[in-house]
Design brief:
Blueprint (H helix, E strand, L loop, with lengths): L24 E4 L5 E5 L4 H5 L20
Antiparallel strand pairs: 1-2
Length: about 70
């Protein structure tokens, strides 16, 4: 069974896909939208693939509608 974000109440402890052996945790943007799973080793590296403001500014600009 896959691991789901904690807000759905079905969080299963699982190792991070990066292969570090640490437990993966869900990462959300500033609007509380799930973005990815990461551990303490790969979190910073994965965040570099996104604009920094999505994690700090809930009013960040987007090109698609947010429901």
């Amino acid at each position: 069974m896959p691991a789901y974000p904690r807000r759905y109440g079905i969080r299963q402890e699982s190792p991070c896909p990066c292969g570090s052996g640490y437990t993966a945790s869900p990462v959300y943007d500033a609007r509380n939208i799930f973005v990815f799973f990461a551990c303490k080793k790969c979190d910073a590296k994965k965040r570099k693939g996104y604009r920094p403001e999505i994690f700090t500014n809930p009013n960040y600009e987007t090109s698609e509608d947010i429901e």
